[in-house]
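User: My collaborator sent over this chain with a note saying "see what the structure looks like." That's all I know about it. Can you take a look?
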Amino acid sequence: MRENAHRFAAAGLLMLMFFLAGGAALRESQTVDETAHVGAGLSCLQRLDLRLNAEHPPLGKALAAIPLVIRGARADYTSTAWKLSTDFFAAYASQWIFGDSVLGRWNQWKPTLMWARFPMLVLTLLLGWFLYLYGGRLGGRWGGLLCLATYVATPAFLVFGPLVITDLPVTLFSVIALWQLGDIWAEPSPGNALRFGFALAASLLSKFTGVLVIPVVLVLFLATRFWPTAGQPIEENQRKAWRRARWRCVLRGVLWAGLVVYVFYFVLSWNQPNDALNRVGSGAWASLIRRPLMPPWLYCRGFLLMLLTATRPTFLFGHWHAHGVPYYFPIVFGLKSPLGFLMLLVLAGVLGIVSRRSGIRVIPDEVRPHWRVLVIGFFVFLAVCLLSRLDISIRHFMIPIALLILMLAPLPRMISTLPQRRLLHAITAVLVLSCLMPILAAYPYFFPFVNSFAAGHPVYYLLNDSNVSWNEGLPEVERFAQQEQMKEVALDWASISDPALVVPQARMWDCQAPTDHDAGQWVVVAAVSILENHNCGYLQQYPQRQLAGGSFYAFKLPLPIPAAGAPCGPPAESERKVMWGLPFDLRAWAINVERHPESLGPALQAMMKGFQQQGNQQAGKKAPKS
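Assistant: Without extra context I'll predict from the sequence alone. Here is the result:
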């Protein structure tokens, strides 16, 4: 009876997450990356062609596209964006144009986006269920419920879980792969090798960072030489045989993963042109060779592209940094997590030290290998995040967060061994409730969520990119325009998609360069464009309204507007920023080619020329002076 009560409680928590995450997602417009991912997922299923969005593996996108294919979502494969995307650079640029058309020109944006997000919401709930199961194995039923409750109250999963992006799928399948690795460590059987292989394959097919499971394996084997685990023999020959059996089992799992990845890429790229492999040859026999070589070529090319684009400027506490900084993720995690969750981590850490010094074992022997794998996995992923030069969002920290949640599982058992257990149980319950309360208060605007550590500063001053807004608040902009009976909305947004598909009154606007026509009018600016993407801090002195919880801001400009460079006025032309540090305004480029598809070819050539000029200028600055 008690077991059923725990399961009902778990089901209730998952239902709460369904309404919180799903309800928020229903109110949001497409986010930046979803523009490319939805179109790429639909085309890979309808055409068996992986030309679009090659910088990400296809599994998550394909899952999201299944409901769209069933519903008969339309994509125009005679369009210029599709035809020109056979070239690698053209495909990289055209994916945004094609995806925006799928989401708003060839189909209605709201139902298309809703059905694409539904499989991702299912994966989000599935991750919660696995955390509950694994937490129960580590810490009993109460440990499982504690893990699930903190997961449901974690904004990162509520925000990014239902979106058609790669971060939730790679988190789900990486956690499963790590647990299956623990199963191999406990019992190196063919079944465990097969399950580990499929979980690893799903992780590799979700995002290229899934490959970090492999370093976890290497660190695990190295650790057993100096830190024996449960069941490890003491006698040298037996210990070697014990390790050899696990090596072989893991290698079988890796081979299974490689086979699954190969077959997946082979099927989904069946109709994709293989001209990139022309160096193999162009005859009939060469054609037979090129097709089987496409899967490894596509995967390696995508992995290389991911590495080449893994450096971007970041923004933190009002300051720009040329690349990622080691303290980025700890700060973002500390600001965007409920205080109750942070205090639970501290409590678990302190009691863990107390239990270890007292010699009390709270992890059952049968799952001690799993616990070791999870701990090693956390530190491996944490180290990569700290060293990363791509610091743009807490969504890139979701695997360490999921592993931290699992590390709370032993807390109830640790408390039950102490004399003050009633007080500590009560404190734990209060901390769990304190995790849920700010989440319920923030609903449905989870994107700009920060805890009370951030009091006194707007979120767009403290953090960057999708930690603040990600183009999801356009429906609120449309609602504001209707309330104010605005026939035209001067909008400074931060995405490559056309906002007029959601806000018909939208007019492209740069908050750094207001004109006399804007004087005395309401204007709307994405929060990340106020300081990060553009230099528009001057707007803070004017009457303003928060939209979508702070994802967008509406400002009432004065009449007249101060001159550029004047006190309290917009920045001088020399002080203006171009979004994402590009050599041109990518928003204007995208809108022009979306509304005038015939201009895409010349526009791509102009874009390439602009990037080449920027590269030459940067090389000239770095060249030593004679």
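A starting point for your reply to your collaborator: Residues 403 and 623 are 45 Å apart (CA to CA).
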